[in-house]
Specification:
Immunoglobulin-like, seven-stranded mixed sheet, 32 strands, disordered N terminus, binds CU-O-CU linkage, binds copper (II) ion
C-alpha cells in the first residue's frame, strides 16, 4: 500500500487544491457586474409540481442562451419554501431528453423515509413519468426546525453530469422560532446559489468528466456570471449554497470586513460567529448576515478569496452589491441564536478510511471508503433505530473530500491530524481545532487530506437504507459512497 506523504503546506492550500485547467480560452469575456442578480421564484404550496425539462437559459450577458437540464426551465431551479413540521407533496415530472435517462431527486439535508430520499438506484422516475415525493419536514422528530436545504439529481454514476447540466435548487424550511428572531426578513432575506461552469464559444457547458473533480472557469451566482444587486444600507440575511461539483469557495468581502455567520447546513448556530474568510465546500451551506450600514453610495464585492486569478480559473469577484437605497434598519442579530441539541453518549464507534486506488503514475482510478467502491445493496453500517453512534472519518488520500451523510444531522466532536499504527492503519493523531462555526449541527463536512474528524448522531424515526458519500460529485460517481441501514431495535 502506498501512502501519500502528508503535504507540508498550510491547511487552506490543502483544502482548496488549486487546479489550472488547460482548456482553451474560447468562452466570451464577461463584463463584470453587467447583469442583475436573479432571485429564483419561490414555490410555497403544500402540493407543487416541478417539470424537469431541457431549456435554453440566458446565463451569459451576451450571446446565445445555454442549453441546460432544468427544474421548471430555469437555473437554479425554483426555491421550495415550506413551514417545517407540515407535509409537502412535491411532484417531479421527467420530461428530459432520452440521453438523460431516469431521474431521482434527493432533498439534501432532509430527514425523510428512504423511499422519499432520492436514492441513486431506487424509486426512479422514467422519462415521461412523474413521482410525488412526500416530505414531513420533521427533523429528528422535531416539528420546529428552520434550515436551508436543497434538492438535486442523485442518479447513480451520473450525478456530476446531471447537476452540472442544471438540476439543483434550494429547499428552505421556516419555523416559528426562527421567524420570531429579529433577523432580516422578506426582501432582505436572499439566497445565493454559487456554482462554477466552463463555457464554450457558443455559451454551452459541455460536461468534461475528471476523476479528481470537474471544475469550471466561470463562477455563476444564481445562474449568472458576476451579477450586481441593489441593496439598502442595512442588514441582509444571505443563504449561500456551494452547488459546484468540485470547487470550494472561500468567501470574503472586498473591504475585508468580517462576515457574521448565523447558520450552517443544518440550521442556526448557537451564536453568531464573525469570520473574515469562510470556506464552503460543495454542498455545504452557510447563512450569513451582511451589513451594508454606512456604505450608501458604495459598492461591496463578495469575493472567492481562494481562487487564483490565473487562466482557467474563475475571477475572484463573485458579485457586486450596490448600496443604493437609503433604508431604515429593522433587524438585528441576537447574541444567541438556537441551542444545539445534545446527543446521548455514543454506544458504538465506526471508522471509515477514505482512499483512492491509483494507476502506475499515481493518478486516481477510483475512490474508496474502507477499501471498497460503492456497491448497491451492500450494507456498510447498520445502526439501530434511536441509538447514538460516533463515526470517525480518516482521509488518507491526496485530495480534500466533502463527506455528506443522509437522513440525520450530526455534531462535529473532533478534528485531528492522521497518525498511523504499526499495521499502517490511520488513527487519530494531533488534535486540530474545531471552529466556532462548526458548533452547530451539520451534514456535510470538509475533510482535508491527511486529517480526520468524528461526528455524533442519534438515528431517529426512520429505518432503512441511506447513503453517505463524498459530495465532490465526480468522487461520488467514482464510487466514494456507502450505505448505512438503520435497523429496528
Ligand atoms: Cu446532496 Cu447524497 O447528496
Ligand atoms: Cu471526495
Amino acid at each position: 500500500r502506498t501512502r501519500w506523504a502528508a503535504a507540508g503546506v498550510a491547511v487552506l492550500v490543502a483544502v482548496v487544491g488549486n487546479f489550472v485547467l488547460s482548456s482553451a480560452a474560447t468562452a466570451q469575456a464577461v463584463v463584470p457586474f453587467s447583469v442583475p442578480l436573479r432571485i429564483p421564484p419561490v414555490l410555497q404550496g403544500s402540493q407543487v409540481t416541478i417539470q424537469m425539462r431541457q431549456a435554453d437559459v440566458q446565463i451569459m450577458p451576451t450571446g446565445p442562451p445555454t442549453r441546460m437540464w432544468t427544474y421548471n426551465g430555469i437555473f437554479p431551479g425554483p426555491t421550495i419554501r415550506r413551514p417545517s413540521g407540515q407535509t409537502s407533496r412535491i411532484t417531479f415530472r421527467n420530461d428530459l431528453p432520452a440521453n438523460f435517462g431516469q431521474a431521482t431527486i434527493h432533498h439534501h439535508g432532509s430527514h425523510s423515509r428512504p423511499s422519499e430520499d432520492g436514492q441513486p438506484d431506487d424509486f426512479l422516475i422514467p422519462r415521461g413519468r412523474q413521482r410525488t415525493y412526500v416530505y414531513e419536514h420533521m427533523e429528528r422528530g422535531e416539528p420546529e426546525w428552520a434550515v436551508t436545504q436543497w434538492y438535486h439529481d442523485h442518479r447513480m454514476d451520473v450525478t456530476g453530469r446531471n447537476v452540472w447540466n442544471g438540476l439543483a435548487g434550494l429547499f428552505i424550511l421556516d419555523d416559528a422560532f426562527d421567524s420570531a428572531l429579529p433577523l432580516p426578513k422578506g426582501e432582505f432575506d436572499i439566497p445565493l446559489v454559487i456554482a462554477d461552469r466552463t463555457f464554450d464559444a457558443n455559451n454551452q457547458i459541455p460536461y468534461n468528466f475528471s476523476i479528481v473533480g470537474t471544475l469550471g472557469d466561470t463562477w455563476l451566482v444564481n445562474g449568472r456570471p458576476q451579477p450586481y444587486f441593489h441593496v439598502g444600507d442595512r442588514k441582509y440575511r444571505v443563504r449561500i449554497l456551494n452547488a459546484a461539483n468540485r470547487r470550494p469557495l472561500v468567501l470574503g468581502l472586498s473591504n475585508g470586513a468580517p462576515i457574521t455567520q448565523i447558520g450552517t447546513d443544518a440550521g442556526l448556530l448557537p451564536a453568531p460567529v464573525q469570520r473574515t474568510s469562510i470556506i464552503v465546500q460543495p454542498a455545504e451551506r452557510v447563512e450569513v448576515v451582511l451589513d451594508f450600514a454606512g456604505l450608501l453610495g458604495q459598492n461591496l464585492l463578495l469575493m472567492d478569496t481562494n481562487t487564483p486569478a490565473t487562466p482557467g480559473n474563475p475571477p475572484k469577484e463573485l458579485m457586486q452589491f450596490r448600496v443604493s437605497r437609503d433604508l431604515r434598519e429593522t433587524s438585528s442579530v441576537p447574541a444567541s441564536l438556537r441551542p444545539v441539541p445534545v446527543f446521548p453518549a455514543p454506544s458504538k464507534d465506526r471508522s471509515f478510511v477514505l482512499r483512492a486506488t491509483t494507476d502506475a503514475a499515481g493518478v486516481p482510478t477510483q475512490w474508496t471508503i474502507n477499501g471498497q467502491p460503492f456497491q448497491s445493496g451492500r450494507i456498510d453500517a447498520d445502526p439501530v433505530l434511536n441509538s447514538t453512534e460516533r463515526w470517525n472519518f480518516f482521509n488518507d488520500s491526496p485530495q480534500p473530500h466533502a463527506i455528506h451523510l443522509h437522513d440525520v444531522d450530526w455534531r462535529l466532536v473532533r478534528r485531528f491530524q492522521l497518525a498511523f499504527d504499526a499495521g499502517g492503519n490511520p488513527v487519530p493523531g494531533a488534535e486540530l481545532p474545531i471552529q466556532p462555526a462548526e458548533a452547530g449541527l451539520k451534514e456535510t463536512f470538509l475533510i482535508p487530506p491527511q486529517t480526520g474528524f468524528s461526528v455524533l448522531t442519534t438515528f431517529t424515526d426512520h429505518v432503512g437504507p441511506y447513503m453517505f458519500h463524498c459530495h465532490m460529485l465526480e468522487h461520488e460517481d467514482m464510487a466514494m459512497m456507502a450505505t448505512f441501514n438503520v435497523r429496528a431495535a
